[in-house]
Amino acid sequence: MFAHSALCVCVLLAVCVLRGSLSESQSQTQSYGERGSDLGLQVFLRVAQEKANENVVLSPHGVASILGMLLPGTHGETKRQILSGLRYKKNGPYKMLKKLHKTLTSKSNADIVTIANSLFPQLGFSMKEDFLSTNRENFMCETYPTDYSNPQHAAHAINEWVRNNTKGHIPSLVQADMLDPALTRLVAVNAIYFKGLWKSRFQPQNTKPRTFTPADGKPYKVPTMSQLSVFNIGLASTPEGLKYKVIELPYNGNSMSMLIALPSEETTPLANILPHISTATVQSWSKLLHQRKIRLLLPKFTIEAEVDLKGPLGRMGITHIFNESQADFRHMSTEPVYVSKALQKAKIEVNEDGTKAAAATTAIMLARSSPPWVTVDRPFLFLIRHSPTGTILFVGQINKP
Ligand SMILES: *[C@@H]1O[C@H](CO)[C@@H](O)[C@H](O)[C@H]1NC(C)=O
Ligand SMILES: *[C@@H]1O[C@H](CO)[C@@H](O)[C@H](O)[C@H]1NC(C)=O
Asked: Could you tell me if 317 and 233 lie in one domain?
């Protein structure tokens, strides 16, 4: 059987671009968005643990989407592993992922989030109609038959699609040597583009070089934005009693926000806070946050990071999809398929851009006492959250802005 049934390779690529500025959050009972995000957060925490001194950016929603795209093709234990990883029951997730996808790509978010999913099957690799139609309906996922016998050409076609669908922010993703002319059967791409504008912008003339001390302890200067405004801010604590500040920066439209977590004590490494982070923790922050006038100092940064999802997903019990002899994709194709590569590339740009002048400037100018300064000058965690669904679109640890 194995002699002829050529190994089918499925490369999963998720592309996420985030061009940001800031928003706000509300507490909810745990939604589907949060469940999917939880898996992605777990993946992030594992990667962050391995790369304690590096910048890491990941889209938890992208991880959930890619598993959601594969799910209708799976059967048996392979399916069970994905469902349990996503914490969905039976057939629940398709409708919810579809709804989530719709919400995130709705008109009100049109200027902020672009999610584009696509499958690139080998020319002539036959996929089951139900699988294709489910993906079309749930993820607006189109398929583009691609000839992998010419990896150079195939990589070029995929990269062009990625470039088109991320508005040029990720010009290239796949290299020809990632594709095998004989074995590649399917490349799945999930592209998320985010260009949030802060609700209240930072004035570019206030951006000045300031000292940032990365995890390795060697301070250096980094362009740091500054804004006097009213922000949601609070003090949280891990079960071990390590305190950290949480600051919420709303994006225009109020449905998205960036949440920043910064250890209160300079001696507390970010790595000691991370194990405590989950969607439940993030949800609990809303009770701690209060509006306060502060001067916020935040580094301006652009981070691009690629994450190989295979290791972390495998350690979380999603192993069958990657195993040639165990993967059961019988509802995708009659040919045996397994996933050889699962990559996600994410890019985030955080700068001054916003839609309005700093909201509270006038009020603050009138205030007599000078407001407290909150300076983000050490490694920090950020999350971009869609408040109505609790979906975590992006999460990152910034060690060197
Ligand atoms: C990308 O966009 C260009 C210009 O609109 C178009 O000609 C090309 O077909 C697109 N390529 C893909 C792969 O979508
Ligand atoms: C795949 O599964 C087989 C059978 O259960 C197992 O023997 C093998 O070690 C697995 N391969 C990998 C790479 O995990």
From this structure: no
* Whether residue 359 sits in one domain with residue 272: yes
pLDDT, tens digit, for every residue of 98-141? 666 777 777 666 556 777 777 788 888 888 999 999 888 877 77
Q: What is the pTM of this model?
A: 0.84
The structural domain count of the chain equals: 2
Q: What is the CATH number of the domain that holds 342?
A: 3.30.497.10
Contact between 73 and 347 (Cβ < 8 Å): no
Q: In terms of residue numbers, what domain contains 365?
A: 204-300+353-388
How deeply is 383 buried, as exposed, middle or buried, from its count of CB atoms within 10 A (0-12, 13-18, 19+)?
Answer: buried
Q: Which residues line ligand 1 (CB under 6 A)?
A: 157, 160-161, 164
Looking at all shown ligands, the one closest to residue 320's CA atom is 2
Q: How far is the CA of 311 from the centre of ligand 1 (A)?
A: 33
Q: Which of 164, 172, 174 to mutate to test ligand 1, by most ligand atoms within 8 A of the CB atom?
A: 164
Q: Do 342 and 357 have their domain in common?
A: no
Q: At what angle do helices 60-70 and 76-86 cross, to 10 degrees?
A: 160
CA proximity to 195, closest of 22, 56, 392, 360 = 22
Q: Does residue 87 sit in the same domain as residue 127?
A: yes
* Ligand 2 atom closest to the CA of 323, numbered from 1: 1
| pLDDT of amino acid 358 | 57
Please give the number of the atom of ligand 1 that sits closest to the Cα of 144: 13
Please identify every stretch of the chain with a pLDDT value under 70, giving residue numbers as ranges.
Answer: 1-33, 35-36, 88-100, 107-112, 355-369
Judgement on whether residues 80 and 187 belong to the same structural domain of the protein = yes
pLDDT at residue 16 in the model: 42
Among the listed residues 256, 260, 267, the one whose alpha carbon sits nearest the alpha carbon of residue 376 = 260
**Using CA atoms, how far apart are residues 106 and 77, in angstroms rounded to an integer?**
35
Q: Which atom of ligand 1 is least distant from the CA of 165?
A: 14
CA of 146, nearest ligand number: 1
Q: Which long-range contacts (CB under 8 A, 24 or more apart) does 203-206 make?
A: 203/227, 203/352, 203/357, 203/358, 204/352
- Residue 226 CA to residue 203 CA, distance in Å, equals 7
